[in-house]
């Protein structure tokens, strides 16, 4: 394919929470900055910007990814899901979000969007996780407020609720 | 924390990748999963002129596990290893080490070959490759060659790969029946870089221990069997020879002690698993 040159801006197109979007970016622009800048989707947070904190975690084609460790030009044609895509309606939280509210899974909320996107992907593939597995997957996130215990409780409660929803469906 | 400018090429086949490397050598870097390279770019420890994205190249998607062993192409993500059938039976050391390789959020994008190319002395994948007698298969526009892991890693984030070469795949020989394998690590959390990581293989009378996180690259040595009175001394000598240094995460003394204790525990586990 033609080379995208450093100084210039190039159009990338992808799906963001089910909606077709496009942005003009330099090759060096991260996906994180593209979401938060030109696309004004600021639900995804920017923390360390080098892959350590997990605040920027999103889903790319269904799997978890650090948005700060991806270039926008890498996601041409991909399907991206962010925290803005979780709530089923503007006035309704998802089961996972509701569990975070109920169990005090957040205080300042800085780490929350990333953690929600990790858990949303994880619970889809592992509907009956035990505490050890959840600790393991949460180790990819830093939270400076909660001490993690309420996050763990929220995750376990959400998993249980989601299983009930499936069995009643 | 923003990368400097570079050109970007999304390669469609291997030839295109190798042509860019031939023409631009030191200025070009391979972009695979990006989980090592992107932080380097963000911190401007790397400032390449052009990135060649290899994830769209069909030749690099090869992941095959047959009687000879496991071949992992340049485009195979770390998470794909976890999805291999019978990983724990066929490659017990890989299965034991997988949760320690980055986090679920980085294994979903990071590639096996990318971690080998990055050659971080604390990273698990280079250590595993060394311990398991793996090979690094390199390719340039002119030739293909294969190097044993022990010759590939040459120092701190340094390898024997030439500027016009890329890692085409890595190969890990199938575990022979009756050979014991074990992996253990001490880190702050799973996914953090290892303070010390140990990988041991017990093959009949031969016992090898590989250690990561201490020297400038993973190092391996043959050691006496558990129960042999000279084991303690041999482990102590290995611990000193690794030249541990103090850093933010641990003192040199602590690292030496871990090599002695974790090393022994890993060896014993490998010997127990030997049928
Ligand atoms: S901002 Fe991406 S991991 Fe910290
Ligand atoms: S709620 Fe403040 S960092 Fe997690």
Q: How is this structure best described in words?
A:
- The complex is a heterodimer of chains A (169) and B (275).
- Chain A is of the alpha+beta class and 169 residues long.
- Chain A has two domains: 10-85, Beta-grasp domain (Ubiquitin-like (UB roll)), CATH 3.10.20.30; 95-167, DNA polymerase, domain 1 (Orthogonal Bundle).
- Chain A is built from five helices and five strands, in the order ββαβββαααα.
- Chain A has a five-stranded mixed β-sheet with strand order 2-1-5-3-4, covered by helices on one side.
- Chain B has 275 residues and is α+β, with helices and mostly antiparallel strands.
- Chain B folds into three domains: 7-53, 2-Layer Sandwich (Uridine Diphospho-n-acetylenolpyruvylglucosamine Reductase, domain 2), CATH 3.30.43.10; 58-173, Uridine Diphospho-n-acetylenolpyruvylglucosamine Reductase, domain 3; 180-272, 2-Layer Sandwich (Enolase-like, domain 1).
- Chain B contains eleven helices and 14 strands.
- Chain B has helices at residues 14-24, 37-42, 78-82, 87-90, 92-97, 104-107, 112-118, 124-131, 149-152, 231-241, 252-273, and strands at residues 7-10, 28-31, 50-53, 63-65, 69-73, 135-139, 144-148, 153-155, 158-159, 166-173, 180-186, 196-203, 206-212, 219-222.
- Chain B starts with 6 loop residues before the first strand and ends with a helix.
- The chains are: A alpha+beta (169), B alpha+beta (275).
- Chain A binds chain B through residues 1, 3-7, 26-28, 30, 33, 48-51, 54, 57, 60, 63-66, 68-71, 73-74, 76, 118, 122, 136-137, 139-141, and chain B through 1-12, 31, 34-35, 38-39, 41-43, 49-51, 53, 55, 79, 99, 103-106, 108-109, 189-191.
- One FE2/S2 (inorganic) cluster (FES) binds at residues 46-49, 51-56, 66, 68 of chain A.
């Amino acid at each position: 394919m033609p080379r995208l040159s450093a100084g210039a801006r190039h159009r990338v197109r992808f799906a963001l929470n089910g909606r077709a979007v496009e942005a003009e970016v330099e090759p060096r622009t991260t996906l994180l900055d593209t979401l938060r800048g030109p696309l004004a989707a600021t639900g995804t947070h920017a923390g360390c910007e080098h892959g350590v904190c997990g605040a920027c975690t999103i889903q790319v084609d269904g799997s978890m990814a650090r948005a700060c460790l991806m270039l926008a030009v890498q996601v041409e044609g991909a399907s991206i899901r962010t925290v803005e895509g979780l709530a089923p309606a503007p006035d309704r939280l998802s089961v996972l979000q509701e569990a975070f509210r109920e169990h005090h899974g957040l205080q300042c909320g800085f780490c929350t969007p990333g953690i929600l996107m990790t858990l949303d992907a994880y619970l889809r593939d592992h509907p009956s996780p035990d505490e050890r597995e959840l600790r393991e997957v949460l180790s990819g996130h830093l939270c400076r407020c909660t001490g993690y215990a309420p996050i763990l409780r929220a995750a376990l409660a959400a998993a249980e609720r989601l299983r009930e929803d499936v069995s009643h469906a | 924390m923003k990368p400097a400018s570079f050109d970007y090429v999304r390669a469609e086949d291997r030839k295109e990748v190798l042509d860019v490397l031939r023409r631009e050598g030191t200025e070009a870097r391979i972009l695979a999963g990006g989980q090592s390279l992107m932080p380097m770019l963000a911190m401007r420890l790397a400032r390449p002129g052009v990135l060649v994205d290899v994830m769209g190249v069909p030749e690099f998607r090869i992941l095959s596990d047959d009687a000879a062993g496991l071949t992992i192409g340049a485009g195979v993500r770390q998470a794909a290893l976890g999805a291999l059938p019978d990983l724990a039976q066929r490659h017990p050391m890989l299965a034991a080490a997988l949760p320690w390789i980055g986090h679920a959020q980085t294994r979903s994008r990071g590639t096996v070959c990318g971690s080998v190319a990055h050659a971080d002395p604390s990273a698990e994948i280079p250590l595993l490759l060394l311990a398991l007698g793996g090979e690094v298969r390199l390719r340039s526009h002119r030739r293909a060659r294969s190097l044993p892991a022990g010759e590939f890693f040459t120092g701190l984030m340094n390898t024997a790969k030439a500027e016009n070469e890329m890692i085409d795949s890595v190969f890990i020989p199938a575990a022979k029946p009756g050979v014991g394998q074990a992996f253990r690590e001490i880190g702050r959390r799973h996914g953090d870089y290892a303070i010390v990581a140990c990988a041991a293989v017990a093959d009949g009378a031969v016992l090898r221990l590989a250690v990561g996180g201490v020297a400038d690259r993973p190092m391996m040595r043959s050691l006496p069997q558990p129960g042999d009175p000279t084991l303690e001394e041999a482990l102590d000598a290995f611990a000193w020879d690794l030249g541990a240094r103090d850093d933010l995460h641990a003192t040199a003394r602590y690292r030496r002690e871990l090599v002695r204790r974790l090393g022994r525990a890993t060896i014993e586990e490998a010997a127990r698993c030997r049928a």
